[in-house]
Amino acid sequence: MTVKLKPIAQQVVVITGATSGIGLATARLAASRGARLMLIARDEEALETLATQLRDQGALVEYAIADVGNAAQLQAAADQAIARFGGFDTWVNNAGASISSDAARMCPSTSRRRCSRRTSGVSCRGR
User: What are the pLDDT tens digits along the chain (127 aa)?
Assistant: First the structure.
């Protein structure tokens, strides 16, 4: 069976964690190749700045403020992408957080919150 993928210029790409690191690099590269973008992150100011930069370069960009650990916020972002672009082709689960602590000294609630952010974004969108 041969899989035929759409060219990136014909795709709507949703990117979580879009304002820094790999998410930011992915957003910039996808925009430069003509993808329509839905950017998701927690930092509204950074999202607005990035969206403006990419729009100034000719990209079609929407954004949503959301924490990947919050299923309702992710659903709202997905609904926004569907309303604006008619759907999406690729969802990049990039958001995450690192833990800089000795596991034995970390409180259980911090551990659960950090692990939730890393895994629930995948499970919430993967349903």
Answer: 888 889 999 999 999 999 999 999 999 999 999 999 999 999 999 999 999 999 999 999 999 999 998 999 999 999 999 999 999 999 999 987 656 666 666 666 655 555 554 444 444 444 4
Q: How far apart are CA 54 and CA 91, in angstroms?
A: 19
* One-letter amino acid for residue 109 of the chain: S
Q: What is the CA radius of gyration of the chain?
A: 16
Q: What's the pTM value of the predicted model, to 2 decimals?
A: 0.79
Beta carbons within 10 angstroms of residue 101's beta carbon: 12
Q: What is the DSSP letter of 9?
A: G
CB neighbour list of residue 40: distance below 8 Å, 6 or more residues apart: 14, 15, 16, 17, 18, 63, 64, 65, 66, 68, 74, 77, 95
